[in-house]
Amino acid sequence: MSTSPDDPPRGLVFRSHATSRHRRGVAAVVLMATLALIWPVYPQVSSVEPYVVGLPLSLAWVVGWLIVVFIAVALLYRREEQNNEADTS
Amino acid sequence: MSTPTIVLLICGLYLLLTLGMGVWSSRTVSSSVTGYVAGDRTLGTLVLYFVLGASVFSSFAFLGAPGWAYSRGAAAFYIIAYGVVGMVPLYFLGPRARRIGAHFGFVTQAEILSHRYQSRGLSVLLAVLSVIVFIPYLTLQMKGAGYILSTISEGLVPQWLGALVAYGVVLLYVFTSGMVGIGWTNTFQGIFMMAVAWFLGLYLPHEMYGGIQAMFEQIAASDLDAMLRAPGLAADGASWSWAGYSSAVIVSAVGFSMWPHLFMKAFTAKSERTLKFTVVLYPTFQLFLVPVLLIGFSGVLAFPDVSPADTIVPHLLTQIELSPVLVGLVCAGALAASMSSGDAILHAAASIGLRDGVRPLLSEGMTDMQQRRWIRVLVVVISAVAYYFAVFSEVGIVALLLGAYGGVAQIFPLMFAAFYWPRGTGAGALSGLAAGVAVNTFFLVAPHLRPFPLHEGVYGLIANVAVFVAVSFLTAPHNGKHLRAYTHPPVDQEEADAATAQPLEAV
Fold first, then answer.
1. Residue of B nearest to A38 (CA)
2. Which of A20, B77, B212, B456 has the least CB density, counted as fewest CB within 10 Å?
3. Residue among B80, B225, B249 whose CB faces A66 most closely
4. Residues of B in contact with A47 (CB under 8 A)
């Protein structure tokens, strides 16, 4: 098969973007959250005690990561919207 | 007035309000296909937030999830765990899909994929997959609604009548208003069911055990303490394996944002900003599962041996001295959970069935009018089929639905590669998806043949990606100009949209 310059690249293409550094940061947090919620990390915190705001540790851990991911994505959103406004003004 | 009468009155009032809201909202939208299927791409943050939330929180949230907590303990945490990361892909994929959708006029997930991969076969395969998954899903919602009404009314309303009335209302507003009807009713229903869940989830442990921590301490001190340690119990009461738990979390997280009725909501957003903001806010909806699980845990010590476990919430409601008005409100909240998912599924099944399943097979095109008419016909047909299964058939649909997540997850590699892997080809996508779905289904029906005790979706995904990549490299790439729209989506659209869009609400 001959390759012409019109052929698409063989690998993945992520558009380089003013915010890509932040996007990579969020991707890292999401990856960390995923790993934290499965074997082998989650078994380390699967006990009932200590209680965190009334919830067993095993449940509080999951809710905690929900909040961490929420904050990470929210910060990314704020950053990207600020950049958008800076672009258009 | 007797308790069942008051409860039924409140539920009736709720149904009337929902119906009025759903039908009235058709006045706010154009009579085009885009109007019917994607609400003219004008949905704002508030409405979109509840549409996304309510599409996911079905009657499972008021029946299944507490049932899991009640019978399987910490295993139920998995429902929260996959939602932690499951919606995040939509933050990255959604805005691109929305922009390309607005540019080319797409309103469904299959449309964008079949255009990107230049494959009609892909569109039909996705339509078939979607409808196969949606009918049992809808059937379960109807069963849930019928079940709640019949239990709470102490048999005054039989199950068939309960399902018929609740879904008669859904059918009417989905038929007349399409997407905007779903938007407005889901907002109302979402607020309602969240309030009910938080109230019950905090009230029951407090009333029965003196607090949330006290409740868990008492469970931990009893001989049921094993259920609180992750990963909880399997369906048979033994400990669930870590391999099973972890792989279920991963497959569900991958599949979550790919549900066709969920993903197509990206096309309904007023702007990219709205869509992103909705995804940002999504975890606040996910948090609502915490009180839902607390409701289930509150039954563990007080009412052992409730069977099937899914009936724990109606059981609690009939056993505990609550004012009939409160019982009525809770009952209406559970109906809201069922109906707010059922409507979106029904609407998506009909829209996808026609746009992606039927239309690509016709040689001559269809006018906007014809499409709208046929989608409405399908809305009625699909309701009737699901109703038949809900009331007259004894087919095991729960198992079918549980297997569906593995199937839906198979769409993820295609969606991801559509934007980020230009080398992916139509032949690769079609064969990858087919291989993934086949392997997933195989291990679903023959679980004893799995090499490791992992969720069947994991095997499907491995087969899917391997075949997709291999076949793509063996076939000629798509034209670079065609691909550019996907790797570098047209950017001018948002401003154009902002100028022409009619705001649906003042947010």
1. B246
2. A20
3. B80
4. 229
pLDDT at B286 over 70: yes
Q: How far apart are CA B221 and CA B414, in angstroms?
A: 49
B500: confidence class by pLDDT, cuts 50, 70, 90: very low
| A23 vs B: CB within 8 A | yes
- Number of neighbours of residue B31 by Cβ within 10 angstroms: 11
DSSP characters for B62-106?
IIIHHHHHHHHGGGGHHHHHHHHHHTHHHHHHHHHHHHHHHHHT-
- CB neighbour burial string for A11-29, b if at least 16 within 10 angstroms, e if fewer: eebeeeeeeeebbeebeeb
What would the two tokens of residue B68 be?
A: 């899991």
Cβ burial B52-87 (10 Å sphere, 16+ → b, else e): bbbbbbbbbbbbbbbbbbbbbbbbbbbbbbbbbbbb
* CA gyration radius, chain B: 23
Q: What is the sign of the dihedral through the CA atoms of B98, B102, B105 and B107?
A: positive
Question: Rounded CA gap, B504 and B169, in Å?
Answer: 23
Chain A within 8 Å of B479 (Cβ-Cβ)?
A: yes
Helices (H) and strands (E) in chain B, counts: 25, 0
Amino acid, single-letter form, for residue B200: L
Round the average pLDDT of chain B to a whole number and report it: 88
Contact assessment for residue B314 and residue B87, using Cβ atoms and an 8 Å cutoff: no
Q: What is the pLDDT of residues A32-47, one digit of tens each?
A: 999 999 989 999 998 9
The tokens for B380 are: 């009625």
User: For the packed helices B289-302 and B77-86, what is the interaxial angle rounded to 10 degrees?
Assistant: 170
Highest-scoring range by mean pLDDT, A15-29, B247-261, B362-376: B247-261
Lookup: tokens for B252? 């569900």
Whether residue B391 contacts residue B141, with contact meaning beta carbons closer than 8 Å, is answered with no
